[in-house]
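Researcher: Please predict.
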Amino acid sequence: MDLGSPTTSKVVGTLCLLALVALGWTFVVGPETSALSDTRVQVDSTREQNTLLLQQLGQLQQQKTELRRTRVVAAELATKFPPTADQPGLFEQVTAAAVDAGIGPQGVTTLAPTPPVIGAGTDGVTADPPAAGTGTLATQDVSVSVTGTYDQTQRLLENLEHLARAYLITSVDLAGSGDDSTGTFTTSITGRMFVMPPVADPSDDDVTTAQQ
């Protein structure tokens, strides 16, 4: 083969170009293409993660909104069903109801709450109060005796039914004589109040941890 001929030069040049292209692909284009492919995979993975994070964020925001409502309801329940017998608070509420009815604190002759229990006593032994976090209601009997007119007694019963603390009146015994509007009556009221341990309040951090 004549290396100096035009045909040979063309063949050699073509081979050189092919060799350069191959080397370029091996050392430049190939790695760059591979890197680009890896980048695309990472981009797709990041997009999927972002989508998942957005969904989780929406769920957390919804839980946070529901948590606020739950706390409001829990506060209302804690007022109606306090976590302890709270006898000072009980005396204050019943006395205020009597004063509002026109009877006055001196007209409340008896106010006797029993210890809160779960279920009925056995052989004279009362059950234990509910444990914290159980959400179980305990009951306590509350007896009230008052002296006042018929109208005052009626207003007192209405006030007791609308106490901030739930009071379920089970019996009313009225004794007295004379005109209903001016006569004096002695009234014995029996009912039940309730005690419920507070429910543990989950914090925002607890909700986030549970979601993760």
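Model: The first helix runs from residue 6 to 80.
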